[in-house]
Hints:
- By secondary structure, the protein is α/β, with parallel strands linked by helices.
- The chain contains nine helices and ten strands.
- The chain folds into two domains: 3-171, P-loop containing nucleotide triphosphate hydrolases (Rossmann fold, 3-Layer(aba) Sandwich), CATH 3.40.50; 186-292, K homology (KH) domain (GMP Synthetase, Chain A, domain 3).
- The protein is globular.
Amino acid sequence: xxxxxxxxxxGRPNVGKSTLMNNILGQELAIVSPxxxxxxxxxxxxxxxxxxxxxxxxxxxVHKANALFNQRLNQQSFNMLNEVDAILFLTPAxxxxxxxxxxxxxxxxxSEIENKLAIITKIDLVDDKNRLDQKAEDLKDLGxxxxxxxxxxxxxxxxxxxxxxxxxxxxxxxxxxxxxxxGDVDLRFMAQEFIxxxxxxxLTKDLPHSIAVKIDDFIEEENKPYNIFATIYVKRESQKGIxxxxxxxxxxxxxxxxxxxxxxxxxxxxYLIIRxxxxxxWTEKEEEMKKLGY
Length: 294
């Protein structure tokens, strides 16, 4: 028996949700990028110590949704509110608490969750203490009693958050028996995400929203590199050429970046082949989204 708790992480895009979870776990579980829609799936991260197991649910950033796919991402985030014991609402120190934040907070307050924390992220980017104090006051006015700060290279901030979350934990069987397990995603899913992360790294501003990655085959043989065959899907034929690049330069960069990332995280050699295909306007087609895992 341990004390256990399931904690949801929610907020607008690029407020630091995945960064927070990765830093608490000390593992690079969720990909991080300044591009919105970086997180597209609810990803579970697992914190273990001798007495506690806390499961974090990282969610897609809630944003204005016109396309069916974007609406699906928002619904994933809000569905999480029915599955957790506590909520972390994240909002960055260097931005005002605007309409997007208030919309999410209204959803949180209308749920049955009593255990909730507001986390002011990116406090390392703001030198003005008065500005941070004002941000905290705004959050108190919106219904948060407990407010914490978090920032890169400030490890104590993450320790403070985990210690407070332990006060919400209750006696129960661990959700995951393996204490070395830090996430619920497999190598296949991680390979898919590392390819998408590479695409976010190399592609222009708008195109990343139009891509989806599917692992076609993941072959593991003893004493041999992992053989990974993947396809990147785009919405239009014109995007295919951009993704491949002149002389296949773009797809080579994406392949090299993602392969090196896989080898680093997996601790294993990787042989990677990536193809590019068109799935016409897949973000608006229910059947195509299901095929691509959304």
